[in-house]
Amino acid sequence: MKVFINKIIPSKGLELLEEAGIAYTMWKEKPVLDREQAIYFCKGHDAFISAGQSGLNADFFAQCSHLKVVALHSVGFDGVDIAAATKQGIPIGNTPNVLNRATAETALLLMLTVARKALYLHKKIQKGEWGVAQPTEDLGFDMVGKTLGVVGLGRIGAELARMCKQSWNMEILYHNRSRNEQAERDLGARKVSMEELLSQSDVVSVHTALTSETKGMFGKKEFELMKPTGIFINTSRGGVHDEQALIQALEKGEIWGAGLDVTNPEPMQPGNPLLEMENAVVFPHIGSSTVETRAEMARCAAENIIAGLKGERLPYPVNPEVYDR
Ligand code: DGY
Questions:
Q1: Second-level CATH architecture of 2-96+290-324
Q2: N or C terminus: which one in the chain shows less Cβ crowding within 10 Å?
Q3: Has this prediction a pTM greater than 0.90?
């Protein structure tokens, strides 16, 4: 049994595969593989660990219907045609929970960086502009006692809410389809309408998956509803916000700042106006990129592969319905 791995993953995952007697081929080059190349390699293997491979669509799964399991090296699976994989009988696994904390910390880092204009001020030093600051110049905002609005209070959103509650006693509002009773109990979180969340929150943080319902859900109208002192944070998927509408909202001062770990498309191109704005901070999708978290993600991926190749149910399945076939 052989598994193909499309990028360099942490050794923790590789060791688990080796212990289980599973051989692997790992693509170590840059640029990364395109879809056709990935198909070519998958055809010579029994399983696939995909770290952000693009083009995992119906045609991919039709051409690679021999795969016994595909393990995503991510929690998100918005780029994968899960229904097509299920149709071909291929179990898909992901890496849930292990990146909650690192991603929530990324949102927190963006919040503080934007709120204190830290990146902008750092750039001023680089330009030799660290002069005499007036006591009223370049001021940021405190977080203590402010309101956090979480759109998508799942595992990552709840982790951020917990940190904000514990650190600054922030009030927590959330907007979800279903109630998060534990967050209501533990953090005093209140489920509110989207309009209320946007108009009442000092920081709006997005943690929803990218679906046909959430695509572009932050546009002109939503930014207009936010406070002029409000900060927009997105660590979920770039497709959830409309970038042009965000740029305009920042330019017009309809919102105070924005912090993005995700963009649409990725990578963001160097000339993007957001990169030059005083009140915007962009990270290159680093939500899960800590040594510890990536090692755990590799573990989950390897465990999914080992189970899948044994014909067992994956420990972290995305399409459990594949077993009902
Ligand atoms: C995920 O796992 O979906 C993250 O966005 C990747 O860092």
A1: 3-Layer(aba) Sandwich (3.40)
A2: C
A3: yes
